[in-house]
Amino acid sequence: MKRFYIPATLSVVIALIMSINVNAQSGKTEITRKNSWIKTGLNIGLPIAQLADQSNFTLGGEVKGQLMSTPNWGLGLASGYTHYFPKEGHENFGSIPAAVFARYYPARQGFFIGADLGYSFQTGSQLNGNGGMYARPQVGYHNRLWNIFGFYNGIFRKEADGSHIQYVGIGTTFNILFD
């Protein structure tokens, strides 16, 4: 089962990149000030599964570049940093994701659903820098300037590198518009 994560995630990433490339070549999506922007935000989370034994909570920041490829679909790149605040007897550590993301917006304002997929690099001595495949499905509310969402964050590592890193949380991002 664990061997499935890497090929599956890479397949999704390649498919997203190819779809962006196909749209760009066909002239359907031109990057303009009106259909692209930067999202910056903060999130907080509660560790679940084995991570709950090592960490009390998480606090992170994120930056995303988004292109609205159609009126309802946003695609982009995502990164940031999440710090895991340790329980007594454990060390500090963090994660730095490098991901692509897709979001579906049924309307100009209201509900949205999306996911980030990629790889997360780990920081901190107890993890020896070993990261893993990164998945972050989310659901939330959006308007022109703000996004508020709930999410599950999973970093799936090889068994030799230790347990998976999982938490649930809430976050908000502010859209920096160029128009």
UniProtKB/TrEMBL annotation:
It comes from the Bacteria. Keywords: Signal. The keyword Signal applies. Residues 1-24 form the signal peptide. This is Outer membrane protein beta-barrel domain-containing protein.
